[in-house]
Write a structure and sequence with these properties.
Chains A, B: Residues 358-431 form the ACT domain. The structure is a homodimer. In chain A, 36% of the residues lie in helices and 27% in strands. Chain A is an alpha/beta fold. Chain A folds into 3 domains: 8-138 and 313-332, 3-Layer(aba) Sandwich (Rossmann fold); 143-309, Dihydrodipicolinate Reductase, domain 2 (2-Layer Sandwich); 353-432, 2-Layer Sandwich (Alpha-Beta Plaits). In chain A, the strands form 2 sheets. In chain A, strands 7, 8, 9, 10, 11, 12, 13, 14, 15, 16 and 17 form an 11-stranded mixed beta sheet that branches. Chain A has a 6-stranded parallel beta sheet with strand order 3-2-1-4-5-6, sandwiched between helices. In chain A, helix 1 packs across helix 12, helix 4 runs parallel beside helix 5 (109-126) and helix 7 (164-176) crosses helix 8 (180-189).
Chain lengths: 436, 436
């Protein structure tokens, strides 16, 4: 299919796993893309650090350059695609592009979560499009629905499994009873975990995505620093077994919620931590390295978006979708909905977030133990939902699940329990989500 | 929050369950909507058949009119919202609006599935936006992702549960072992089924949605008449039990698929019928009256969209999302991506669709029965995947699951089996999907 219109010209920054796939799809689907856009796409340059490196497919070597900034500044570039990642120098390249009115398509979650405001400001200044569907949950069309489909509704809560590595590990622990270390080894072997898995297992990756999701859902600028973060390295095989007994499974969740703070003002709470959820919850059956995001909105009710959250090809699919949108906008002289941050809601600290705890205690098997323990909960105004007690010789195990209470009260309760003589040890503390 | 820009003016056609909710949300979220759009929305008229009828909420009676066409023609109307349903007179109102350059937001799946082409042509003629997110799967943002997020990818298959009534009935049969009649009675009592459930249980509603989904997914005009349709009234408690034994559940699915036809040409097959799917499939756990659509694309891989497919408030949420998009486009002088039907793929008849069958036969318990039955399958070039045989007295039951084969071959096989002396009766024939 041919088109009489001049080509929309693309500059690609980065040519790793995702970039290579973007180039491949641009070639393979050139005809379809031209038909959908109404003009052909032309890749005019690819900025990489090592132009001589072997890359999949046959990419014209003349396209490679090491001068990313020079490529961005070229007059004949319409759309800049950034799949390098990291804060700097990507930030300066994208500011340069946006300020000059070039459309930007980026998969850079770290940059958006740390300093999205600067990019949005540059986009406003240059009257340019900033697309970043690939930054959260890979191929799942998620940001566009949040940005556009639900903008007549009010989102109240977003609960997501947004990190494939940790979901693979937790799914495997749930299926086999393995401990964290063993499951991590398996994930590394199969290529689901990187050599240094810190960003994944400590929740940094999920926290960046949580910040982006919360910003879109609540029309409020949220950065990674605003997100309470707790990794999942502390989740044990015993925790997983205990969750099973309760009809639950453990997932690393990102949770973004709007609601009144302690003084009654509307505010936003954003957190990443492992939590038990009931097996009947739609998120519970999200296995392997899949991602899913569960959205609750006042009018729409419950929605869920599910798919592959990572990988070169799925991420490239999201990048391509954004390229087409940006190219169509350029041809029609229009722009995507720009940043919507009008709500300016304050961030609520984790201490004020209402959560539920599952606490497992090894206690001395004496009369009055339960009364003493229950007294500690009452002192902090935490209401107990269920208690299971099982004795063995002189010890007993108490498994307590609370009703919802401010996280600070729950944390203080656990601190107090720790100091009790009759409490031999606190075997586990896990948050509980999803209406168990 | 105020705005200096003049209001975007809305005309509402219809004020039933969905319309009333649209009006309520427009009032309740006026401030948010103004902020998101950059200008206020103003409802200037509501066309209804009986203006005096009692409606929820306090709607200004001066807004009501019985003259829908007159309202659509008013010079001061920017966006026409149609929630009346049915083919005529809705068609003429929307053609009038679009041709005159007014944006249209509609939830009218029947009209879009029967004659979407006429509406798209009118939209092109008037350079007007035609939005219809609410027409398929209620509140689930599904059309926008298909239309926009995946337009850099190639969708290969869409498998959906798009009718809440039948999903409620089948979920209930699966959970309780009830028969169709009993489960339908329950659905009617709880308000999930209408007094005349034909459109739902016979698959007409799902077929209309399938046509709309297939059109978007494959960039090809598909109408309801192109969709092979088989209702779910024939699904028995025994079928459900048999599915359970196989680790499956039965769902009424709409399936739209692209692929080569018998002569090797790329084509589209669209069908609605009950089918067994494995319990491990993401669609299997979609319970109650929820909807979900499972999308497979070449680059994105597997995606699923889940949520409430019906109900006044969820549908109104989708309508509001479209109103905001249409209003923003008007303010910025832009348009949404228009219809994309460049692929013009031919429709493949059901006989050529490759499916799998689960067939349960009551046969005489004689030597050689299996050989005779297997011979019939071989004659029609249908390969058998599994056979289970269970005897009781002089009768035996054969449960046969086939490999994939053209539907025509499978149908001919069943016809031939019916004429065999040794086959006492064919207890059930069900298609099998989702890679069992």
């Amino acid at each position: 299919m041919s088109s009489d219109k001049p080509a929309v010209r693309l500059a690609l920054l980065g040519c790793g796993t995702v970039g290579t796939e973007v180039v491949r799809l641009l070639h393979e689907q050139a005809e379809d893309l031209t038909a959908r856009i109404g003009a052909p796409l032309e890749l005019v340059g690819i900025a990489v650090r090592r132009p001589g490196r072997q890359r999949g497919g046959a990419i014209d070597p003349a396209l490679f350059t090491t001068d990313a900034l020079g490529l961005v500044k070229r007059d004949d570039v319409d759309v800049v695609i950034e799949v390098v990642g990291g804060i700097d120098p990507a930030r300066s390249w994208l500011i340069e592009a946006l300020s000059a009115g070039k459309s930007v398509v980026t998969a850079n979650k770290a940059l958006l979560a740390e300093d999205g405001a600067t990019l949005h400001d540059a986009a406003a200044e240059g009257n340019a499009d900033l697309y970043f569907e690939a930054a959260v949950a890979g191929a799942i069309p998620l940001l566009r629905p949040l940005r556009e489909s639900l903008h007549g509704d009010r989102v109240t809560r977003v609960t997501g499994i947004v990190n494939g590595t940790t979901n693979f590990i937790l799914s495997s622990m749930d299926a086999t009873g393995a401990g964290f270390g063993e499951a991590l080894d398996e994930a590394t072997e199969l290529g689901y975990a990187e050599a240094d898995p810190t960003a994944d297992v400590e929740g940094f990756d999920a926290a960046a995505k949580a910040a982006i999701l919360a910003s879109l859902a609540f029309h409020t600028r949220v950065t990674a620093a605003d997100v309470f973060r707790e990794g999942m390295t502390g989740v044990t095989a015993a925790d997983v077994a205990s969750a099973k007994e309760m009809g639950c499974t453990i997932k690393l969740l990102c949770i973004a919620q709007r609601g009144p703070d302690s003084t009654g003002n509307e505010s936003v709470s954003v957190r990443v931590h492992p939590a038990m959820i009931p097996r009947s919850h739609p998120l519970a059956s999200v296995g392997d390295a899949f991602n899913a995001v569960f959205v609750e909105a006042e009018a729409a009710g419950q929605l869920m978006f599910y798919g592959r959250g990572a990988g070169g090809t799925p991420t490239a699919s999201a990048v391509l979708g954004d390229i087409v949108a940006a190219a169509r906008n350029r041809l029609s002289g229009t722009r995507a909905p720009s940043e919507s941050s009008y709500a300016h809601l304050p961030i609520r600290p984790i201490g004020e977030a209402v959560t539920r705890y599952h606490i497992s205690l090894d206690v001395a098997d004496r009369q009055g133990v339960l009364a003493t323990v229950a007294g500690v909960f009452a002192k902090h105004e935490v209401s107990i939902a269920t208690v299971r007690q099982s004795g063995r010789d002189e010890d007993a195990t108490l498994v307590i699940v609370t009703h919802g209470a401010p996280d600070a009260n729950l944390a203080a309760t656990v601190e107090d329990l720790r100091s009790l003589d009759i409490v031999r040890s606190i075997a586990s503390v896990l948050r509980v989500e999803g209406g168990v």
